Protein 1
Amino acid sequence: MKNISAFFILIVSLSTAYAQEQKPELLKQPADWEFERFSLPPGFAPGITYSGAEELRFAPGMFHKDSANYFTYVFVAQLDNVSAISQTDIRDYLLKYYKGLCSVTAKDRKLAIDTTQITATVEKLQNTSAKETIYNASANIFGVFADGAPVTLKLEVKVLTDANRKKIYLLIIASPREKTDAVWTTLYRIQKEFGVSE
């Protein structure tokens, strides 16, 4: 009986620790989108040299190819001990991120993909306010959560700097849908409302 009680306490402790680890600290909305959090660099992309954390929100239907929200999601990368990041740095981050994600997930799901075909482009948006830095980006990747077919993601990367704590945040909104699609209304609202306290 004592062993059963100890086991139960251990399970409850582990569950509580996991729940605390998964609690949103940065990306608290949309609350009805599936949430995930992990440390940087991610296990699937060890080539990323930044330490910190990443939080993600997946739109309902994100993992279903026949959904209007297929591969539509938002994520924020908190980069610790960083005071500046360039356009080239952001492109490098996206490239390593998606190559690693596609490679590892395809292997797990026994999908055949050519990671040399994964590319990323990043260009600074000119029509933003002086207080904002936003990049328009795209990534040619593979739909490794579905059938492994090629997917072109349209992305925007908003850069927020916390100079006092020497942190940079990359808020990334993404969807293969055209930016005239209704889903981008939601993504742009998330982009506009996201902020970090300094």
Protein 2
Amino acid sequence: MGLSRRQREIAEFIIAYHQRHGYAPNQREIAEALGYQGVGGLHYQLGELKRLGYIEYKLNCPRTIRVLPKYAGDAAGASEPDSEEAVMVPVLGRIAAGTPILAQEKTGYSVPLPPLIVGHGDMFLLRVRGDSMLDAAILDGDWVVVRKQDHADTGQTVAALIENEATGESEATVKVLGYRAGRMWLDARNPNHGPIPGDEASVLGVVVAVLRSLKSTAPP
């Protein structure tokens, strides 16, 4: 029996997440990314994928889900997934990967993105300025797709809003979320940039995809 479109989406998300973060997603993250209302339906699909030998995981042990080599072989010979309507993602302006900058307001237009790449949910698109996320392969001029949520796990790349007490304005930045000594930190991925205290910060969402134009990187 072949994999359903939904099962392929789950497996591809697990693979992409592991490549991006270096560890597996938890079930809540999978459910949110793929538009499940809860984890009940996801539990069934994960059980089927495990029974069919495509994934493995340890019960009651988060972040142990792993896609097995059998999936790559069967997916290569499978038919293309059913077409799915593109997700319209609004463009909100820019966000800093460096010193936080004021995020621009909504530009008034949206772009269609494939759900197989960005998943489902309430998302927005921001242009990155700065190089503090260089070692996470987020470059100056890239676009980040952010899934709206007010919470995130340690190690996730987030868009965060920081209150500037001097100006009274809110400034936005993209960083890796960390917790140390009971405090929240927004960590860079470039040794030239230090961490930012997150005491006055709030999470806007989690970065689920990075988009890049290759025009500026083409050889002369």
Protein 3
Amino acid sequence: MFRIVCRIILEQQGNGRNQTFIFDKVNKVTVTRSFDKQTQTASITLPRNVIYNSKNIYEGANALMRRGDKVTIIGAYYPNETVIFTGYIAKINNNVPIELLCEDEMFLLKQAIAPNLTFKSVNLRTFIAKMLENTSTPFKAINAELGQIRLQGASIGKVLQVLRDQYGLFSFFVDGVLKVGLPFYKDTAQSAVFLFEKMIYDGMELTYLKKDDVKVQVKGILIKNNAREEFTYGDPTGDIRTVFQYGGTKADLDVKCNSFLEQANYTGYYGSFKTFLEPKMIPGDYAIVDSWKFPERKGTYLIKSVTTEISVDAGGKQTIELERRIL
């Protein structure tokens, strides 16, 4: 049986606090990642009455841990040392046992105020570079024209959320790099095979549906010359998906939305499944779902979200949510 490695590395931040502490014992760790969420999160439940070198770890003026301290979570099977989360303590729940609520690098951008900026028309890459110029945040952004934008007194995190809501531009961190633009990136995606009879130990939330039984509605949004138009495609009673088109024509939007509708309305698996801690997957990767009993159902799926849980009672698992079938 595989032995689980679960380790928390805490690095103090600011005001002369520069010590590093390592916790090898935790009650439970949950890491939630999704390309549909701006902030990736983690919760850490420590054992009751935990102390470190005879000191209380979270109370008093000299507490070992505070809001804003850096956290790294390692979760894997021995002897692997796989990092499953990096971020900062956003909140300490002072109950028993102690629970740390953590956010990834977006925690810093949600507190940083963007410089005042005004553009009659601006490219996304130029805009992000100007907005982040007073930070040390590395970024990658797609080539997109935003039109007129004005910033005044807003946090960087809030601005990124507005880009998501109004322009359909996704923002999230991957390995410490802020990515702005697409929900996933094919050039960096990994893939792994998940065999029902061997690697999927709980597929109760996974449903195999025929294309005719699926209802999908696509809301197409055309952004051009600082104007915004919305159009609807597919089944008006179906689950709503949103597609953005920057520039171009209504005909371009029609092609893009109908293509997306075809991808979203497929015969295959819908939902999520539970598997082991490894192989480690992240949103935007591909899950190849296969079966010895039903080989005709084999398919490749885009992963929307991954929730990783490690606990004393239940061991370790990943819950992988599928976004849509690719092949």
